[in-house]
Amino acid sequence: MAFLSLSMNYPELFILSILCFILFLFLLLPNWSLVGMFLTFLLNLHNLPEKFTELLERSQEGTISVHSSKMDMVATTNPGNVHHVMSKNFWNYPKGPAFRQLFEALGVSLFTLDLEDWKTYRKFIHNYFMHPQTHQFLAKVIPENVKIGLIPVLEHLSKQGFIVDLEDLFKRHLYDFACIMSTGFNPNTLSVEFPHHPFFKAMDDMCEGIFYRHFMPDSLWKLSWVGIGKEKKLKAARDTLREIATKYMSMKREEIKANKDKEKFDFLQCFLTEHEVFGSVLHPEEIIRDNILGFIFAAQDTTSATLTWFFWLISKNPEVENKIREEMEKNLTVKQGKKWEISSIEEVRKLVYMQAAFYETLRLYPPAPFQERIALEEDVLPSGHRINPQTKVQMSSYAMARMKWVWGEDCKEFKPERWINEKGEIKHEPSNKFFAFSAGPRICLGKNMAFTLMKAVAATIMWNYTVEVDETCPVIPAASVILHTKHGLMARIKEQAP
């Protein structure tokens, strides 16, 4: 079975085999179609986004529904349905308690909260992102982190001629950035030594474990006494991530007590000092810890995945790379014979075509390819599909990007031009059609920060170096709730010829 860990021993395999056989009989009796769909997904977990796309391509109105005595589910790529669920009738479609259980490793954070609790912390975090001091801190952190972290490593790699996993490099750079913005501390995981850090394995294990939970019955993965395979790794990952966040909280308290570095305006400091951003509410320790983890997860995992797919797509489309280089030559200020280093985030905001290429990357390879909501009350979708209470509504931005009736005959092509309007500006597409950053009230608060950061990284690499992707290493999606690659993006970094 696809969800078996390679580290499992024979007794574990035997127990899980028995449980899976019982599950199969349980599903077999009430509904053959549900069994068929379950087995189809189970046998194609290594390529689930594509299989999901194929299924929805054959559907009417881009929507399918499954009803059984055990589960009601609707899967859709219909923009009208997405708008209805994510915006128009938002309060009828929370993530729900089952979602919180699936993602319990992220604790009680904005990512897992619903309804009034979500509304409260959404306001707090919105205030942080909109605060002038946050913008000032961001404008300082991005150039500094590129200069002291990214460039020395790129220089080293270009001189040594090593093949490097770019996805690992991006994860490290983004983790350092996310830690600075969320806690005020730089763990310096991106250095020429590529030091071991427990965060990366824990995050990968968490994302993989949560992914497999979606295809196992609650009664199976909730059996704590099983404690094997992916579930064992998931629990260990949760503990590791919480230890890391708790350590940063302790360090921050010591820093505040010593009255050090008043120039910082990080997320954790605002929580702990009862800053105006978060009001004078005394927040429970686990709420602070879990929101720090949620911040790092949102900033690091999703952005590093996007950068990875961006450079892979660029390697496959040299004409796009040439256009980006032409745009950089017009807009970046570089001294003759010198490497370009970002001095101001305003500089990269001029790179409109590069931003269009990132939009196109996010359209084709959204970091979160699936979103799920659960209905509280009876409803009818714009496509005419009836929704019963407790119906799961699954929406796939990955599949929608490949629907010709939504994006046109060229929907599967990488074409940044589709994002440029007649004035040469970024063309707006409604969030129910392009929901890589979610949609409606839950739309991503860090969208602008993410684009600025990704453009700073991409411009630094593309102006100063040539990336030669190793074509012998397959680039395919990993089994994860975040659309990472299974084998990384192996490449050589070579110094750009003058």
Question: What would you say this structure looks like, in words?
Answer:
- α7 packs antiparallel against α8, α7 runs parallel beside α19 and α14 (318-331) packs antiparallel against α16 (352-364).
- Mean pLDDT is 87; it is low at 1-34.
- A hairpin with a 4-residue loop joins β1 (63-67) and β2 (72-76).
- The chain has one domain: Cytochrome p450 (Orthogonal Bundle).
- With 498 residues, the protein is an alpha+beta fold.
- It has helices at residues 10-28, 32-43, 48-57, 79-88, 97-102, 115-130, 132-160, 166-183, 198-213, 218-221, 229-257, 267-272, 285-316, 318-331, 345-348, 352-364, 397-400, 404-407, 447-464, and strands at residues 63-67, 72-76, 163-165, 370-374, 379-380, 386-387, 392-396, 465-469, 490-495.
Number of helices: 19
The major β-sheet equals: 4 strands, mixed
CATH class identity: Mainly Alpha
Give the CATH H-level superfamily.
Cytochrome P450
Q: What global shape is seen? A: globular
Strand content: 5-15%
Number of strands: 9
Average residue pLDDT: 87
Give the C-alpha Rg. 23 Å
Domain count: 1
CATH architecture: Orthogonal Bundle
At the fold tier of CATH, the topology name is: Cytochrome p450
H and E order = HHHEEHHHHEHHHHHHHHHEEEEHHHEE
Approximate helicity band = 40-55%
For the termini, the CA-CA separation is 53 Å
Strand order of the largest sheet: 1-2-7-4
The assigned structural class equals alpha+beta
